[in-house]
Fold these 3 entries.
Entry 1:
Amino acid sequence: MAKTLLTYEQLKAYVTNVVTASKMSNGSFIETRDNTVGLLDKIGKIVMLDTDYLTDKLYIFDGEYLSFGKTIEEWQEDLLPIEDYDPTGANALAPSDPSYRPPFYSYTLGKKKCKTTIRYNDIERAVHFEEQFVNIISIKYKRLEDSMAQYRYAVKRQMLAKFIELAHGEMTNTNTFATSTAYDNGAVVRSASSGQNIKYGIVVKAIASSNSKNWATLVSEGSIVELHLESEIAKPVDATSGENFIVQVKKDVEVARDSNEGNSLNGNSLGATEGLVLILKQGVMPEIEVKTEAGAFHLEKVALPTEVIVVKDFGNADADYFAILMDRRGMRLHNTYNATREDNNGDGDFLNVTRHTEDTAYLSRNVFFHAYKNVSA
């Protein structure tokens, strides 16, 4: 009697012929009647694998719901001067009004909607039992929330892009400072039109046209505050560039956690900021963890000194920007309207479900912000 032996190579060859692409994930339904009665072979299972669209890695920037009003007005009062005591009290009753940073306004992004349709006597013909029917209907409602969640997440990433744009705009301003020229409070200027050491600053005390003082003098007396809103540094790709980036972040965190100026869009004086967050684009953190931290003897010395959030992108910002260090209070997306409406069309025999929303995107010009841009090769 002959004996047979199945080897793994024979088994591999056999299943290669059995498991074919045409038998799996086919784009069309092939009718079969492989039974003695000749009836249609039934679909045994209907599958829908869902995913979590509600994950918002920038949830810390959700603002409170605004029941009334859509516009956000931001103001900031300056520090008060310290003066020598006058024992005569000559100016005891004179007013001493504080000065303020120029106010800014954030407006509504406009009303948006997301709509889905549920048709009656429609899905029923495609399913076997009530559980499948309920699942399909519930997914239709869930997709409204999923779509809105992804919209808000994308809006926040675009808000980061706008923050970068505003900071970069101030750090590349072409308004060259000149004596005998008037500058209003809030004007952004640069120290020279060309050269290697051009500085950028913001006027915090209005300068009269009769002014004859140079840049350095106006900075030293506090009429101009020099800005430090972005750094050009190599994006981490190895141990050296990773360490250099961490060192720079540590330096900037030290600055942010003490009294400082020139690190906000308005150039206002800042106190110590403890609620810092470092936002990284995807692809940066693995380089730091594997090529920098993995080889560190004292991990605590190379660890990033603040909360880290990794996101897929910074909206439509220049691709060279790969990190942002900022005060977590500096950005908020405030919802101002949130409603779901249902319209039953009896004649058309369907139900329209519409999700309405409206938001106001707020960026602060008076908090710590610093962007990191990959240095040009």
Note: The chain has a mean pLDDT of 92.
Entry 2:
Amino acid sequence: MGEPKPRLKDQVAIVTGGGGGLGAGICRCLAEEGAHVVVSDVNLDLAEKVAAELRERGQEVLAIRTDVRSPEQCQTLVETTIREMGRIDILVCGAGVGGFDFRGDSPEPPMLETISEEDWDLIIDVNLKGVFLCNRAVAPHFKQQRHGKIINISSICGRKGVAWLAHSSASKAGVIVLTQSVALQLAPYNVNVNTVCPGLIWTPMWAKGAEVLSQTYESYKGMSPEEIFRTEVQQQIPLGRPQTPEAIGKLVVFLASSEAEEITGQAINVDGGAMFN
């Protein structure tokens, strides 16, 4: 038997947040299955770095700077992709910010009394509004061609509220329900819309959170961010290991493939058993 046929051969996939650790892992998995990837990120340097890596695989790749808070930039992302690539088959909305971002030098976790309106608005705008704007921008194209796959990235903190991440939990829970609504709207056009909920992945976002936790909880004082992360993994993940960007990317590939043509409106956890449906 020969090599298995790539599941996404010559399909065109947009990945927002594609320059980050999780987004880059998703981009790699899509490219490995034959997709031509548009790496979209607010940080163009990071997007270009990932794009350069993927081009070495022989894939056609674009890097586009996109601030997903901007409806104009989301629309430009879609229009540029169609103009340069000829089509769009897959949209992965992975752009996001964490609850510990933009906290300055505050040693306190972002509790209800300490979350500023500015931080609340920023997280809702990127994590939830950004998904809405990108879904909205691609919907007419998918409806016209009568097929497409949308995969929105949420989180297990959208499954169950976290005491010190009210704004993040609210934004990620919103993504899950938004996905259900979009799935219902686009189902008559043969478009599948699903959500992936990652568990604990070591990223710069998590490292910043661990630093805050080390200053807040006595049990974590004196521990490095990596030690705190490993402790959280052991406490929260029944399988006892962290998740990886590639683990998320593999599910994204499945949902983007013809193998998942009967799956829509679902939120699927990739979390080592941290949450059960």
Note: The longest helix spans residues 117-145.
Entry 3:
Amino acid sequence: MKILFLSQRVPYPPNRGDKITTWRLIERMQREHEVTCIAFAHDEGDLEAARTLESKGIRTIAIPHHDKRKRLQSLPLLLTSKPMTLGVYGSRELQRAVDAHAPDSDAAYAYSSSMGAFMLPHETPWIMHFAELDSDKWLQYSKVQRFPMSLVYRREWRTLLGFERRVAAAAHQNIFCTPLEEKIFQREVPGCPSAVVRNGVDLTAYQPSPDTVEAGHLMFVGVMDYYPNIDGCVHFIDHVLPLVRRDFPEVQFTIVGSRPTPEVEALGKRPGITVTGFVDDTCDYLRRAAISVAPLRIARGIQNKVLEAFAMGLPVVGTTSATQGVDGKPGEHYLLADSAEDQARAVVELLRDTERARELGRAARRFVEEAYDWDACLAPVDGLLASCAAARSSA
């Protein structure tokens, strides 16, 4: 089968949330099918990654994308009814590449709604994989931002939802990574087909390492130019950490993630706080953590950072927003805490009771072994692609 795969970023290496999922998807497809990947290259690293994919037998067309420039160029869209997202990720060059390959493909797979836009002119059956329901994300942003950004975000929610309805209706199937996302979709976009294909976790790369744990070391992992991650870390440091330090004054907090903004870098100047920036392997840091924290106040979808901490056998303290996409049970596989006081109380409990922390981590590891192996999670994709091909042949 010939499959056309569209992605906002070159799907390699798997070192951030979207690349983890897209790499796993494309690697699975490539085992039995001929895959052509068309994706945006955001920097030289993406261009190099495209060459690596070529060496792995995956034809890859990387279209340079200048994010800041595209954001500025999208500003006039505020005077129209078009989502700014489509301005940021619009590209005549990428559309030409899709136009050249879609007619000869048996099926296409678009990861994120902005990539689905490039399939609208084509009759090739395709799958729309909503990494997250972006319109809902902008609605969440609008509720926590001040004017005028609250108005801008609310406009993006409204216009993007209209576009998502159009894309969903055109797709052969719509995929979500959690039942919660699918539920929101079915409420906001009724009548369109949908399915859940969960993210997995690399159980080989992420292995428990109890002998390397550093007492009192808290850790957060995530790309640090992403607003929900920034907001969660700032709130944790300002409002949770001081409460924890009443009982454990020497506690350390490390933020591991690429592209830290100036605001995040400034956090690293505070006592007991480290901001690493990009690291080659997050496992090297997670092995040192006593507790993984996921203090996100805005989130949808599944948080890879939570699954990876589970796989490392780490006790996790997470908010509802950070853990709602994971099927684990609070109190059995992780501790659920939303308010600053409850988060601090949960962290202190685990720092004080190390056996409880270890048992929580062991239970989390067992849980992901049973439920989040990548091959098992992505198995439904095979049938969905076959359904696209059947629709193509019967058309």
Note: The longest helix spans residues 149-170.
